[in-house]
Amino acid sequence: MKKNTHPPYQEVLFVDSSTGASFVIGSTLQPKEKGKFEGKEYPMSRVPISSSSHPFFTKTNQLLDSEGRVDKFKKKYERNTQAVKASQEKQEEKQREAKQAAAPKKKK
User: Among candidates 79, 73, 78, 10, which has minimal Cα distance to 45?
Assistant: First the structure.
């Protein structure tokens, strides 16, 4: 059997960046950062979402996002919808002008 083909298995401290919840799980992940949990030092990895912050497990409709991805998406979507509305208004204005130009003028 080949040696050194698999990374070493170790206990890793995972920290939820939105709630600060910490838990230790065995993993082959090799993080460089260290953290203490219950008096013992572990390699530490930060996760953006876990069971302590996910709406399915917390039974809330609000998603906590400490990294700003949700706000970034909402801003991007808002800009996109404004651009679409502006282009629709321009098209409607052109159609109104075309109808007015094509309509026969009434004589009195």
Answer: 10
Q: Measured between alpha carbons, how far is residue 98 from residues 84, 89, 90 in Å? A: 21, 14, 12
pLDDT digits (tens, 9 = 90+) for 66-82: 667 777 888 888 888 88
The residues with which 64 forms a beta bridge, in sequence order, are none
Q: What 3-state class would DSSP assign to 52?
A: coil
16 contacts 52 by C-beta, under 8 angstroms: yes
The tens digit of pLDDT for each residue in 36-68 reads: 999 999 999 988 888 787 767 777 766 656 667
pTM of the model: 0.53
- Alpha carbon 72 to chain centroid, angstroms: 8
* Cross-strand partners of 43: 34
